[in-house]
Amino acid sequence: MDIPRKSAAKKRRIRRIAYALTAVVAVGLITVGVSRLRPAAPSVDDNTLYKGTVIRGNMIRNVRGMGTLVPEEIRYVPAISTGRVEKRLVQPGGQVKADTVLLELTNPEIQQAFMDAESQLRGADANLTTLKVQLGKQILDQEATLAQANSDFNKAKMQFEVNDSLGKQGLKSKLEVELSRIAAEDAEKRVGLETKRVAGSREEGTARLAAEDERVRQLRDAVQLKRKQLEALKVRAGIDGELQTVEVQVGQQVTLGQNLARVANPKRLKAELKVAETQAKDIQLGQRVSIDTRVGIVAGRVIRIDPSVQNGTRTVDASLEGDLPKGAVPDLSVDGTIELERLENILYVNRPVHGSENSTVGIFKVDPDRSGASRVQVKLGRSAVNTIEIIDGLREGDVVILSDTSQWDNNDRIRLN
Prior knowledge:
Elements: H1 6-36, E1 43-44, E2 51-53, E3 55-71, E4 74-78, E5 83-88, E6 95-96, E7 101-106, H2 108-168, H3 174-231, E8 234-236, E9 241-246, E10 253-254, E11 259-264, E12 269-276, E13 288-292, E14 297-305, E15 313-320, E16 333-350, E17 360-366, E18 372-383, E19 387-392, E20 399-401, E21 413-416
Parallel strand pairs: 1-21
Antiparallel strand pairs: 2-20, 3-12, 3-16, 4-11, 5-7, 5-10, 6-9, 7-8, 9-11, 12-15, 13-14, 13-16, 14-15, 16-19, 17-18, 18-19, 18-21
Protein backbone atom coordinates (compact mmCIF):
# COMPACT_ATOMS: atom_id res chain seq x y z
CA MET A 1 0.00 0.00 0.00
CA ASP A 2 1.05 3.66 -0.61
CA ILE A 3 2.17 5.69 2.32
CA PRO A 4 1.55 9.53 1.99
CA ARG A 5 4.60 11.60 2.35
CA LYS A 6 4.56 14.65 4.61
CA SER A 7 6.74 16.73 2.25
CA ALA A 8 4.22 16.50 -0.62
CA ALA A 9 1.34 17.82 1.54
CA LYS A 10 3.47 20.70 2.73
CA LYS A 11 4.33 21.64 -0.83
CA ARG A 12 0.68 21.61 -1.84
CA ARG A 13 -0.18 23.94 1.09
CA ILE A 14 2.59 26.36 0.16
CA ARG A 15 1.47 26.33 -3.46
CA ARG A 16 -2.14 27.19 -2.49
CA ILE A 17 -0.95 30.04 -0.29
CA ALA A 18 1.20 31.39 -3.12
CA TYR A 19 -1.76 31.23 -5.51
CA ALA A 20 -3.92 33.08 -3.04
CA LEU A 21 -1.33 35.80 -2.46
CA THR A 22 -0.82 36.17 -6.19
CA ALA A 23 -4.55 36.55 -6.72
CA VAL A 24 -4.81 39.19 -3.97
CA VAL A 25 -1.90 41.17 -5.39
CA ALA A 26 -3.33 40.93 -8.91
CA VAL A 27 -6.72 42.17 -7.76
CA GLY A 28 -5.09 45.05 -5.91
CA LEU A 29 -2.99 46.01 -8.92
CA ILE A 30 -6.01 45.85 -11.21
CA THR A 31 -8.04 47.99 -8.78
CA VAL A 32 -5.29 50.63 -8.58
CA GLY A 33 -4.90 50.66 -12.35
CA VAL A 34 -8.60 51.00 -12.96
CA SER A 35 -8.86 53.83 -10.42
CA ARG A 36 -6.15 55.73 -12.26
CA LEU A 37 -7.80 55.42 -15.64
CA ARG A 38 -9.41 58.67 -16.95
CA PRO A 39 -13.16 58.42 -17.53
CA ALA A 40 -14.19 57.92 -21.09
CA ALA A 41 -15.22 61.12 -22.91
CA PRO A 42 -19.03 61.35 -23.13
CA SER A 43 -20.61 61.23 -26.55
CA VAL A 44 -22.81 64.16 -27.66
CA ASP A 45 -25.05 64.57 -30.69
CA ASP A 46 -23.40 67.32 -32.72
CA ASN A 47 -26.76 68.52 -34.08
CA THR A 48 -28.00 69.41 -30.60
CA LEU A 49 -25.18 71.86 -29.89
CA TYR A 50 -25.17 75.59 -30.55
CA LYS A 51 -21.75 76.55 -31.95
CA GLY A 52 -20.05 79.75 -33.04
CA THR A 53 -16.93 80.76 -34.97
CA VAL A 54 -14.39 83.27 -33.68
CA ILE A 55 -14.28 86.27 -36.04
CA ARG A 56 -11.86 89.15 -36.36
CA GLY A 57 -13.47 92.41 -37.39
CA ASN A 58 -15.56 95.34 -36.15
CA MET A 59 -18.06 94.68 -33.36
CA ILE A 60 -20.89 96.99 -32.40
CA ARG A 61 -21.19 97.06 -28.63
CA ASN A 62 -24.78 97.54 -27.51
CA VAL A 63 -27.25 96.87 -24.71
CA ARG A 64 -30.92 96.00 -24.85
CA GLY A 65 -33.86 97.09 -22.79
CA MET A 66 -37.60 96.43 -22.80
CA GLY A 67 -40.18 99.12 -22.28
CA THR A 68 -43.21 100.91 -23.68
CA LEU A 69 -44.07 103.84 -25.90
CA VAL A 70 -45.24 106.87 -23.95
CA PRO A 71 -46.32 110.33 -25.18
CA GLU A 72 -43.72 113.07 -24.98
CA GLU A 73 -46.46 115.60 -24.25
CA ILE A 74 -48.90 114.66 -21.50
CA ARG A 75 -51.19 117.09 -19.70
CA TYR A 76 -52.98 116.22 -16.50
CA VAL A 77 -56.02 118.48 -16.38
CA PRO A 78 -56.58 119.79 -12.82
CA ALA A 79 -59.64 121.41 -11.29
CA ILE A 80 -58.97 125.17 -11.12
CA SER A 81 -62.28 125.75 -9.32
CA THR A 82 -64.27 123.65 -6.93
CA GLY A 83 -67.64 122.47 -8.14
CA ARG A 84 -69.91 119.62 -9.09
CA VAL A 85 -69.59 117.74 -12.38
CA GLU A 86 -72.62 118.67 -14.48
CA LYS A 87 -71.70 117.18 -17.90
CA ARG A 88 -69.10 114.95 -19.58
CA LEU A 89 -68.79 116.12 -23.16
CA VAL A 90 -65.93 113.91 -24.45
CA GLN A 91 -65.24 110.22 -23.85
CA PRO A 92 -61.74 108.66 -23.55
CA GLY A 93 -60.22 108.03 -26.96
CA GLY A 94 -61.74 111.16 -28.48
CA GLN A 95 -59.57 113.61 -30.42
CA VAL A 96 -59.52 117.06 -28.83
CA LYS A 97 -58.16 120.55 -29.47
CA ALA A 98 -56.63 122.80 -26.84
CA ASP A 99 -59.92 124.69 -26.33
CA THR A 100 -62.19 121.63 -26.40
CA VAL A 101 -64.48 121.53 -23.35
CA LEU A 102 -64.20 118.16 -21.62
CA LEU A 103 -66.37 118.71 -18.55
CA GLU A 104 -68.81 121.30 -17.28
CA LEU A 105 -68.88 122.08 -13.56
CA THR A 106 -71.32 124.18 -11.54
CA ASN A 107 -70.62 126.33 -8.47
CA PRO A 108 -73.26 128.93 -7.41
CA GLU A 109 -70.82 130.61 -5.01
CA ILE A 110 -68.38 131.39 -7.82
CA GLN A 111 -71.18 132.75 -10.01
CA GLN A 112 -72.42 135.00 -7.19
CA ALA A 113 -68.88 136.14 -6.36
CA PHE A 114 -68.35 137.11 -10.01
CA MET A 115 -71.56 139.18 -10.05
CA ASP A 116 -70.60 140.92 -6.79
CA ALA A 117 -67.13 141.72 -8.11
CA GLU A 118 -68.59 143.20 -11.29
CA SER A 119 -70.99 145.33 -9.24
CA GLN A 120 -68.15 146.67 -7.07
CA LEU A 121 -66.12 147.45 -10.19
CA ARG A 122 -68.98 149.41 -11.74
CA GLY A 123 -69.38 151.41 -8.50
CA ALA A 124 -65.67 152.15 -8.36
CA ASP A 125 -65.65 153.25 -12.01
CA ALA A 126 -68.53 155.65 -11.27
CA ASN A 127 -66.72 157.07 -8.22
CA LEU A 128 -63.59 157.58 -10.29
CA THR A 129 -65.55 159.47 -12.95
CA THR A 130 -67.21 161.65 -10.30
CA LEU A 131 -63.87 162.37 -8.65
CA LYS A 132 -62.33 163.42 -11.96
CA VAL A 133 -65.24 165.88 -12.54
CA GLN A 134 -65.00 167.29 -9.01
CA LEU A 135 -61.27 167.76 -9.15
CA GLY A 136 -61.50 169.33 -12.59
CA LYS A 137 -64.10 171.84 -11.36
CA GLN A 138 -62.08 172.61 -8.24
CA ILE A 139 -58.93 173.31 -10.24
CA LEU A 140 -60.88 175.47 -12.72
CA ASP A 141 -62.27 177.56 -9.84
CA GLN A 142 -58.80 178.03 -8.39
CA GLU A 143 -57.37 178.89 -11.79
CA ALA A 144 -60.09 181.55 -12.16
CA THR A 145 -59.17 182.97 -8.78
CA LEU A 146 -55.53 183.02 -9.85
CA ALA A 147 -56.44 184.85 -13.04
CA GLN A 148 -58.38 187.46 -11.05
CA ALA A 149 -55.41 187.87 -8.73
CA ASN A 150 -53.10 188.39 -11.72
CA SER A 151 -55.49 191.02 -13.08
CA ASP A 152 -55.65 192.85 -9.73
CA PHE A 153 -51.88 192.75 -9.49
CA ASN A 154 -51.42 194.24 -12.96
CA LYS A 155 -53.89 197.06 -12.14
CA ALA A 156 -52.21 197.79 -8.82
CA LYS A 157 -48.81 197.79 -10.43
CA MET A 158 -49.89 200.21 -13.15
CA GLN A 159 -51.50 202.50 -10.56
CA PHE A 160 -48.32 202.51 -8.52
CA GLU A 161 -46.21 203.38 -11.56
CA VAL A 162 -48.54 206.30 -12.45
CA ASN A 163 -48.65 207.61 -8.88
CA ASP A 164 -44.90 207.28 -8.53
CA SER A 165 -44.34 209.30 -11.72
CA LEU A 166 -46.78 211.99 -10.62
CA GLY A 167 -45.27 212.07 -7.16
CA LYS A 168 -41.86 212.83 -8.62
CA GLN A 169 -43.47 215.78 -10.41
CA GLY A 170 -45.10 216.94 -7.19
CA LEU A 171 -48.57 216.15 -8.42
CA LYS A 172 -49.18 213.31 -5.97
CA SER A 173 -48.49 213.21 -2.29
CA LYS A 174 -46.03 210.75 -0.82
CA LEU A 175 -48.87 209.04 1.07
CA GLU A 176 -50.78 208.28 -2.10
CA VAL A 177 -47.63 206.95 -3.74
CA GLU A 178 -46.85 204.74 -0.75
CA LEU A 179 -50.39 203.40 -0.55
CA SER A 180 -50.34 202.45 -4.24
CA ARG A 181 -46.99 200.71 -3.74
CA ILE A 182 -48.35 198.68 -0.81
CA ALA A 183 -51.46 197.73 -2.82
CA ALA A 184 -49.28 196.48 -5.71
CA GLU A 185 -47.13 194.38 -3.33
CA ASP A 186 -50.21 192.86 -1.70
CA ALA A 187 -51.63 191.94 -5.12
CA GLU A 188 -48.32 190.33 -6.09
CA LYS A 189 -48.28 188.23 -2.91
CA ARG A 190 -51.84 187.12 -3.56
CA VAL A 191 -50.82 185.98 -7.04
CA GLY A 192 -48.04 183.87 -5.48
CA LEU A 193 -50.39 182.32 -2.95
CA GLU A 194 -53.03 181.50 -5.56
CA THR A 195 -50.36 179.94 -7.80
CA LYS A 196 -49.22 177.69 -4.95
CA ARG A 197 -52.84 176.81 -4.18
CA VAL A 198 -53.47 175.75 -7.77
CA ALA A 199 -50.30 173.61 -7.78
CA GLY A 200 -51.25 172.01 -4.46
CA SER A 201 -54.74 171.22 -5.71
CA ARG A 202 -53.32 169.58 -8.80
CA GLU A 203 -50.95 167.42 -6.71
CA GLU A 204 -53.78 166.48 -4.37
CA GLY A 205 -56.03 165.67 -7.32
CA THR A 206 -53.32 163.52 -8.89
CA ALA A 207 -52.84 161.58 -5.64
CA ARG A 208 -56.58 161.08 -5.13
CA LEU A 209 -57.02 159.96 -8.72
CA ALA A 210 -54.06 157.53 -8.39
CA ALA A 211 -55.58 156.02 -5.25
CA GLU A 212 -58.97 155.65 -6.90
CA ASP A 213 -57.35 154.26 -10.05
CA GLU A 214 -55.54 151.66 -7.92
CA ARG A 215 -58.78 150.66 -6.26
CA VAL A 216 -60.45 150.28 -9.66
CA ARG A 217 -57.48 148.24 -10.92
CA GLN A 218 -57.69 145.93 -7.91
CA LEU A 219 -61.40 145.44 -8.45
CA ARG A 220 -60.84 144.83 -12.18
CA ASP A 221 -58.22 142.19 -11.32
CA ALA A 222 -60.68 140.63 -8.90
CA VAL A 223 -63.31 140.53 -11.64
CA GLN A 224 -60.82 138.89 -14.03
CA LEU A 225 -59.95 136.32 -11.37
CA LYS A 226 -63.60 135.57 -10.73
CA ARG A 227 -64.21 135.38 -14.49
CA LYS A 228 -61.35 132.88 -14.85
CA GLN A 229 -62.79 130.84 -12.00
CA LEU A 230 -66.17 130.97 -13.68
CA GLU A 231 -64.68 130.02 -17.06
CA ALA A 232 -62.70 127.24 -15.36
CA LEU A 233 -65.99 125.56 -14.61
CA LYS A 234 -65.74 124.59 -18.28
CA VAL A 235 -62.76 122.24 -18.13
CA ARG A 236 -60.74 122.40 -21.36
CA ALA A 237 -58.13 120.00 -22.77
CA GLY A 238 -55.28 122.54 -22.88
CA ILE A 239 -53.37 120.80 -25.71
CA ASP A 240 -54.19 119.16 -29.02
CA GLY A 241 -54.24 115.40 -28.76
CA GLU A 242 -56.28 112.48 -27.50
CA LEU A 243 -58.30 112.24 -24.31
CA GLN A 244 -56.91 109.19 -22.52
CA THR A 245 -58.69 109.13 -19.17
CA VAL A 246 -61.46 110.93 -17.28
CA GLU A 247 -61.14 110.54 -13.53
CA VAL A 248 -64.56 111.85 -12.39
CA GLN A 249 -68.22 111.01 -12.94
CA VAL A 250 -71.30 113.20 -13.47
CA GLY A 251 -72.59 114.47 -10.13
CA GLN A 252 -69.27 114.08 -8.36
CA GLN A 253 -67.97 116.99 -6.26
CA VAL A 254 -64.39 118.00 -7.13
CA THR A 255 -61.91 119.99 -5.09
CA LEU A 256 -59.35 122.59 -6.10
CA GLY A 257 -56.33 120.95 -7.76
CA GLN A 258 -57.96 117.54 -8.17
CA ASN A 259 -56.92 115.63 -11.30
CA LEU A 260 -59.87 115.44 -13.67
CA ALA A 261 -58.49 114.03 -16.92
CA ARG A 262 -55.36 113.19 -18.90
CA VAL A 263 -54.70 114.36 -22.46
CA ALA A 264 -51.72 113.25 -24.56
CA ASN A 265 -50.43 113.86 -28.05
CA PRO A 266 -50.31 110.38 -29.66
CA LYS A 267 -48.28 111.66 -32.61
CA ARG A 268 -45.27 112.53 -30.48
CA LEU A 269 -44.10 109.39 -28.70
CA LYS A 270 -40.90 108.31 -27.01
CA ALA A 271 -39.63 104.94 -25.84
CA GLU A 272 -39.23 104.42 -22.10
CA LEU A 273 -36.79 101.52 -21.74
CA LYS A 274 -35.76 99.54 -18.66
CA VAL A 275 -32.06 98.61 -18.82
CA ALA A 276 -30.25 96.41 -16.31
CA GLU A 277 -28.23 98.48 -13.86
CA THR A 278 -24.98 96.65 -14.72
CA GLN A 279 -25.43 97.37 -18.43
CA ALA A 280 -26.55 100.99 -18.12
CA LYS A 281 -23.26 102.36 -16.82
CA ASP A 282 -21.93 103.13 -20.32
CA ILE A 283 -25.09 104.71 -21.74
CA GLN A 284 -24.73 108.38 -22.67
CA LEU A 285 -27.03 111.05 -24.06
CA GLY A 286 -27.23 111.17 -27.84
CA GLN A 287 -26.36 107.50 -28.46
CA ARG A 288 -28.22 105.76 -31.27
CA VAL A 289 -31.18 103.55 -30.41
CA SER A 290 -33.07 101.04 -32.55
CA ILE A 291 -36.68 100.62 -31.37
CA ASP A 292 -38.53 97.43 -32.33
CA THR A 293 -42.25 98.21 -32.12
CA ARG A 294 -43.28 94.71 -33.32
CA VAL A 295 -44.81 96.45 -36.35
CA GLY A 296 -41.59 98.08 -37.57
CA ILE A 297 -38.15 99.35 -36.59
CA VAL A 298 -37.74 103.01 -35.66
CA ALA A 299 -34.45 104.84 -35.16
CA GLY A 300 -33.96 107.10 -32.17
CA ARG A 301 -31.51 108.65 -29.74
CA VAL A 302 -31.07 108.65 -25.97
CA ILE A 303 -32.57 111.84 -24.53
CA ARG A 304 -32.72 111.07 -20.78
CA ILE A 305 -31.11 108.68 -18.31
CA ASP A 306 -32.80 108.25 -14.95
CA PRO A 307 -30.13 108.63 -12.24
CA SER A 308 -32.00 106.38 -9.81
CA VAL A 309 -32.18 102.57 -9.80
CA GLN A 310 -35.46 100.72 -9.30
CA ASN A 311 -35.71 96.94 -9.05
CA GLY A 312 -32.22 96.57 -10.51
CA THR A 313 -32.94 98.64 -13.63
CA ARG A 314 -32.54 102.22 -14.82
CA THR A 315 -35.02 104.01 -17.04
CA VAL A 316 -33.68 105.35 -20.34
CA ASP A 317 -35.83 107.59 -22.56
CA ALA A 318 -35.26 107.51 -26.32
CA SER A 319 -36.74 109.89 -28.86
CA LEU A 320 -38.21 108.49 -32.09
CA GLU A 321 -36.94 109.88 -35.38
CA GLY A 322 -38.99 109.82 -38.56
CA ASP A 323 -42.54 108.63 -39.13
CA LEU A 324 -44.04 106.13 -36.74
CA PRO A 325 -45.16 102.78 -38.18
CA LYS A 326 -48.86 102.04 -38.27
CA GLY A 327 -50.03 100.57 -35.00
CA ALA A 328 -47.52 102.50 -32.87
CA VAL A 329 -49.69 103.77 -30.01
CA PRO A 330 -49.06 104.79 -26.39
CA ASP A 331 -48.36 101.93 -23.95
CA LEU A 332 -47.23 99.62 -26.78
CA SER A 333 -44.52 97.18 -25.62
CA VAL A 334 -41.21 97.66 -27.44
CA ASP A 335 -37.61 96.43 -27.41
CA GLY A 336 -34.78 98.93 -27.64
CA THR A 337 -31.16 98.32 -28.61
CA ILE A 338 -28.76 101.09 -27.61
CA GLU A 339 -25.48 101.36 -29.53
CA LEU A 340 -22.70 102.11 -27.04
CA GLU A 341 -19.59 102.07 -29.25
CA ARG A 342 -17.90 100.46 -32.28
CA LEU A 343 -14.90 98.22 -31.54
CA GLU A 344 -12.58 97.90 -34.53
CA ASN A 345 -10.35 94.95 -35.50
CA ILE A 346 -11.01 92.68 -32.51
CA LEU A 347 -11.67 88.98 -31.99
CA TYR A 348 -15.26 88.24 -31.02
CA VAL A 349 -17.79 85.46 -31.01
CA ASN A 350 -21.48 85.03 -30.29
CA ARG A 351 -22.18 85.16 -26.58
CA PRO A 352 -22.04 81.78 -24.82
CA VAL A 353 -24.80 80.75 -22.46
CA HIS A 354 -22.42 81.02 -19.50
CA GLY A 355 -19.92 83.85 -19.61
CA SER A 356 -20.11 87.50 -18.63
CA GLU A 357 -17.87 90.32 -19.78
CA ASN A 358 -14.41 90.73 -18.25
CA SER A 359 -14.32 87.14 -16.98
CA THR A 360 -12.48 83.87 -17.65
CA VAL A 361 -14.56 80.79 -18.50
CA GLY A 362 -14.02 77.25 -19.76
CA ILE A 363 -15.33 76.73 -23.29
CA PHE A 364 -15.24 73.59 -25.44
CA LYS A 365 -13.28 74.21 -28.63
CA VAL A 366 -14.17 71.88 -31.52
CA ASP A 367 -11.33 69.83 -33.01
CA PRO A 368 -10.38 70.59 -36.64
CA ASP A 369 -11.75 67.19 -37.72
CA ARG A 370 -14.95 67.85 -35.71
CA SER A 371 -14.69 64.46 -34.01
CA GLY A 372 -14.58 65.96 -30.54
CA ALA A 373 -14.09 69.10 -28.46
CA SER A 374 -11.66 70.01 -25.69
CA ARG A 375 -12.15 72.50 -22.87
CA VAL A 376 -9.98 75.65 -23.06
CA GLN A 377 -9.80 78.64 -20.73
CA VAL A 378 -10.94 81.79 -22.52
CA LYS A 379 -10.62 85.35 -21.25
CA LEU A 380 -13.61 87.45 -22.27
CA GLY A 381 -13.73 91.24 -22.62
CA ARG A 382 -16.44 93.72 -23.50
CA SER A 383 -19.84 92.40 -24.47
CA ALA A 384 -22.80 93.35 -26.63
CA VAL A 385 -26.33 91.99 -26.80
CA ASN A 386 -25.38 88.97 -28.95
CA THR A 387 -21.55 89.03 -29.13
CA ILE A 388 -18.60 89.24 -26.78
CA GLU A 389 -14.93 90.16 -27.20
CA ILE A 390 -12.22 87.45 -27.01
CA ILE A 391 -9.06 88.68 -25.27
CA ASP A 392 -7.13 85.41 -24.91
CA GLY A 393 -7.54 81.64 -25.34
CA LEU A 394 -8.93 81.48 -28.89
CA ARG A 395 -7.85 82.39 -32.38
CA GLU A 396 -9.64 83.55 -35.50
CA GLY A 397 -11.53 80.70 -37.12
CA ASP A 398 -11.82 78.56 -33.98
CA VAL A 399 -15.20 76.89 -33.57
CA VAL A 400 -16.53 76.74 -30.01
CA ILE A 401 -19.62 75.33 -28.31
CA LEU A 402 -21.81 78.17 -27.00
CA SER A 403 -24.74 76.19 -25.60
CA ASP A 404 -25.04 75.08 -21.97
CA THR A 405 -22.27 72.57 -21.15
CA SER A 406 -22.64 72.55 -17.38
CA GLN A 407 -23.51 68.81 -17.46
CA TRP A 408 -19.92 68.11 -18.59
CA ASP A 409 -18.16 70.27 -16.01
CA ASN A 410 -16.23 67.20 -14.85
CA ASN A 411 -15.01 66.41 -18.36
CA ASP A 412 -12.25 68.16 -20.23
CA ARG A 413 -13.23 66.51 -23.50
CA ILE A 414 -16.36 65.30 -25.31
CA ARG A 415 -16.91 63.21 -28.41
CA LEU A 416 -19.13 64.54 -31.17
CA ASN A 417 -21.36 62.14 -33.07
